Amino acid sequence: MQELLKKFENKQPEITFEWSDSESEAEGWVVINSLRGGAAGGGTRMRKGLDKREVESLAKTMEVKFTVSGPAIGGAKSGINFDPNDPRKDEVLRRWYKAVIPLLKSYYGTGGDLNVDEIHEVIPITESYGLWHPQEGVVNGHYHATEPEKIRKIGQLRQGVSKVLEDPDFTPNGTKKYTVADMITGFGVAEAVKHYYTIWGGSIKGKRAVIQGWGNVGAAAACFLAVEGVKIVGIIDRDGGVINKEGYSLDEVRELFLNRNGNKLVAENQLSFEEINEKIWDLESEIFIPAASSRLITQDQAERMVNAGLEVISCGANVPFADPEIFFGPIGVWTDQRVSVIPDFIANCGMARVFAYLMTDNAEVTDKAIFTDVSKTIEKALLKVNSKNPGKVKLAESSFSIALAQLV
């Protein structure tokens, strides 16, 4: 597996598009690892300090993810090195998308990612430049769709991704309306845990969970886990966090979801980041959901969680361990040898799967159909891993072996 991984990591990406903004310090890259199947896909992220290496590693991660979610295409990613809190963000995004529209028309499909919103930014901006949908490049490059097929597939994409959720099973209560794109990744991360206990044995009910990151992925995953009877005992966010050793009730978790300020945790008795960071890794818990930025989990944190009784990690963030390697460095390997690690390309494939599902012929565009399809996709991937490795450790290693056999 390590040999295959090295080979895949060290292969040069097929296409690297580099951009320097004419009116600000922003710079950006589209990295297309390969045009497997005639196209490539991967979201657009923005953060200060992002570099080409990060975009390249995420493009490779996407290629592995497509072995689970489908379609059988190459991995890609867009990254913009710019402060997303800067008031010029919208203008920068507009100039960025204007530059990359030819790729998006031909063979590259994108979506939202860290600090870039699918519904409110990617779709309206690309639409204003004449793109039918951010996945149009995949429809053209991979499916070679005829005009009627293209109209149908893009119609399903437009309707499905932005669909306002009506089924109470898939959205927290409250007056605010949420879309499929808001909830689906966190749903998949929680479903991965549910399927894990069903397949490998044990009951999810009454387990305790720690959540890292309170954006759409972490907060939604916490809600769906709470529905299954999981006790959320700790949440760590970028500015602080909360601990409740007895576990927050479903209503309290939903309240914390609804009270967010953007993607930030807002709670009474919130501890400072320093306080929460000191305490949370020693909390007794069986489930850990890393759902913040990439490469945050240190060796010390992993060891402390294992010592506190951790059983399973469902990776909501791409590449959550603080290793320099693209996929699987020493911290990831150490953790994988001690607890069940469900890798990102299975656990957080929800949005990629939604795109793939909505591009199938005559997809049923209902809340239940879309969410059930994601759940079944994750279950199928985990059953494959279990048939290769019924043990409770080295799940990530086994998952990579299955994926890389299709790519290298």
Automatic annotation (TrEMBL):
Pfam families named among the record's database cross-references: ELFV_dehydrog, ELFV_dehydrog_N
Organism superkingdom: Bacteria
SUPFAM superfamilies documented for this protein: Aminoacid dehydrogenase-like, N-terminal domain, NAD(P)-binding Rossmann-fold domains
Xref: InterPro entries: Aminoacid_DH-like_N_sf, Glu/Leu/Phe/Val/Trp_DH_C, Glu/Leu/Phe/Val/Trp_DH_dimer, NAD(P)-bd_dom_sf
Domain Glutamate/phenylalanine/leucine/valine/L-tryptophan dehydrogenase C-terminal as annotated: residue spans: 181-408
Keywords on record: Oxidoreductase
Tagged with keyword Oxidoreductase: yes
Family: Belongs to the Glu/Leu/Phe/Val dehydrogenases family.
Name assigned to this protein: Glutamate dehydrogenase/leucine dehydrogenase
Species of provenance: Algoriphagus winogradskyi
